[in-house]
Design a protein that fits this description.
Blueprint lengths: L5 H8 L5 E4 L10 E6 L10 E6 L7 H9 L4 E5 L5 H7 L2 E5 L5 H13 L11 H15 L3 E4 L5 E4 L9 H9 L6 H11 L5 E3 L9 E8 L2 E9 L8 H39 L5 H7 L6 E8 L8 H20 L4 E4 L2 E7 L5 H16 L3 E5 L9 H14 L6 E3 L4 H15 L1 H4 L2 H12 L3 H10 L4 H8 L3 H15 L6 H14 L8
Parallel strand pairs: 2-3, 3-4, 4-5, 14-15
Antiparallel strand pairs: 1-5, 6-7, 6-10, 8-9, 9-10, 11-13, 11-14, 12-13
Helix pairs in contact: 5-8, 8-9, 10-11, 12-13, 16-17, 16-18, 16-19, 17-18
Length: 517
């Protein structure tokens, strides 16, 4: 199958959404991907790509057109219709435009979806490339444009036989990779999935065309459906041909599902090894996952305080939400569920990672009806550091709460450091022994507030007046308590080292602060 061309893209997206101003190299040039470009960053060399000129006024895009030509790009998309057509023609780069009020991220998703819908953009190891060939074969034999769908009415493949009539429903379905929803459509699918033979279904609206359709099943399981547009010239044996094609479609869909599951399993295992630091060859594993350059690990988890009837199933749904959102932003993406935590690797320097995490938390909370929290580890230079970033994210998860559902490790560095310090000190006898235990024991036995007085004094920089203010007592009261403390607990407050250790132990191990102790 041929690669997606500029002409193919315009056939699917063209019209009000995307306007072509000039195509000096013709419309048969390939379009490999749609790339968002910030004018403040160097232009990458991505031959065949379509560049979205974010932040560059259309009238000022001349330098970008020249750079695009040098980088081998197919074209540039500007916002507004006043782009420099003459310069585009001079440099041999296609110039397209979208409306002034178009949101760039919506434009990017629209174009990326249309490009990905082309047969050549479907990886061969998923088996979906064969579905496109089957759709073409059915369309040729029956005489009607054909589409193959999954049970959720998502279009997996469609025919590209020239000259066959189509309608707006097909156009919109291919564009969004999803059949447009309507009550009438729902009723037709109900009838279709109850049938065991080809059905002739009427047009749903003026301007639409009727369909010949049949469900695809294997072992009693519905795998999808095949639809043929009836433009009035279907072959006499179209129903028999469709039934034969459906049998082949069942085999291909089963094979495609197995291939997808295998690829996902392999990707999950590779990512799991990168995150726990057991990957034998981290650079090779990262390359296979499509990871390169700086990245950070994001961890997503269901709020433990929430009541979740089926936590395991809900966690799997959370994994799906995270994967979907990351794939929409970064394309091919790996995510993995480990012990109830969903981990994803977010590529790039990290300026927009927190915003993405906040969006995912909001979407997941709405979809799952359970509060979700997200922690972001340190940005690391390459895949070899992902295990450290994952460890950061795990620590951040432990300090999040309802008031702080999303945070990066830099934002909670102090909390994380105290958490780890408490763990280390708690594990070592020589670090958790000492006068602090005698102080707390004396307070417990006699009802005194020596520990709180001591912490306030430390927090006030060993200033008696400052400590008295924190305690809401007279400075002489504070002074008296400290004298009694030294006498009864054997504390030497004249020793700066002992003061430092005592402060750490009371703050970290006892969890006392001047404000809340």
């Amino acid at each position: 199958m041929d690669a997606c061309t500029l002409g193919d893209l315009l056939d699917v997206v063209g019209g009000p959404a995307l306007r072509l101003h000039t195509a000096p190299a013709g419309q048969a040039v390939p379009v490999t991907e749609a790339v968002l470009h910030d004018g403040r960053t160097p232009l990458p060399r991505q031959p065949g790509a379509l560049l979205l000129a974010v932040g560059v006024p259309a009238a000022e895009s001349g330098p970008l057109l020249r750079a695009a030509a040098r980088a081998g790009l197919t074209g540039v998309v500007v916002r507004g219709a006043d782009g420099p057509v003459a310069e585009a023609e001079e440099h041999g780069v296609a110039l397209l435009s979208v409306a002034e009020d178009a949101a760039w991220h919506h434009v990017h998703l629209l174009l990326a979806s249309a490009i990905a819908a082309q047969p050549a953009a479907v990886p061969s190891d998923t088996g979906l490339g064969d579905l496109f060939a089957l759709a073409d074969a059915i369309a040729t034999a029956t005489g009607g444009a054909t589409a193959i769908e999954d049970p959720r009415q998502r279009i997996l493949a469609y025919s590209t036989v020239p000259g066959q009539p189509v309608d707006e429903d097909r156009r919109q379905g291919i564009l969004g990779r999803q059949v447009p929803a309507s009550a009438e459509n729902t009723e037709q699918y109900r009838r279709l999935f109850a049938a065991d033979r080809p059905l002739r279904l009427p047009a749903l609206a003026d301007g639409d065309l009727p369909r010949l359709a049949m469900p695809v099943r294997a072992g009693g399981e519905t795998l999808g459906s095949v639809w043929v547009i009836d433009g009035g010239s279907l072959a006499p044996d179209a129903e028999d041909t469709l039934a034969q094609g459906v049998s082949t479609a069942a085999l291909l869909l089963l094979r495609a599902r197995a291939a997808r599951e295998l690829a996902r399993h392999r990707g999950s295992e590779l990512l799991r090894r990168l995150l726990d630091g057991t990957a034998v060859d981290a650079p090779t594993a990262a390359e296979r996952l499509g990871l390169a350059g700086p990245a950070r690990v994001a961890a997503f988890v269901l709020d433990s305080a929430a009541s979740v009837p089926d936590a395991e199933r809900t966690a799997l749904r959370l994994l799906d939400v995270v994967r979907l959102q990351c794939e929409a932003r970064y394309g091919r993406h790996a995510g993995v569920l480990v012990d109830g935590v969903v981990y994803a690797v977010l590529p790039g320097p990290g300026e927009r990672h927190k915003k993405l995490a906040e969006d995912i938390v909001a979407r997941a909370g709405q979809a799952l009806r359970v509060p979700v929290r997200a922690a972001l580890g340190e940005v690391v230079p390459d895949a070899a550091g992902l295990a450290d970033s994952r460890a950061d994210a795990d620590l951040v998860l432990r300090v999040l709460d309802a008031d702080l559902p999303v945070a990066t490790v830099d934002e909670v560095r102090a909390r994380v450091a105290l958490l780890r310090l408490a763990e280390v000190m708690g594990e070592r006898r020589e670090l958790n022994a000492g006068a602090w235990r005698r102080v707390l024991a004396y307070d417990t036995a006699h009802g005194t507030e020596y520990a709180r007085t001591l912490v306030c004094w430390f927090d006030a920089g060993c200033d008696m007046a400052g400590a008295a203010k924190l305690l809401a007592v007279h400075p002489n009261t504070c002074r008296y308590r400290l004298r009694q403390l030294q006498q009864h607990a054997g504390v030497d407050l004249a020793d700066p080292d002992e003061r430092l250790v005592l402060w750490l132990q009371l703050r970290v191990l006892a969890g006392l602060t001047g404000a809340t102790a």
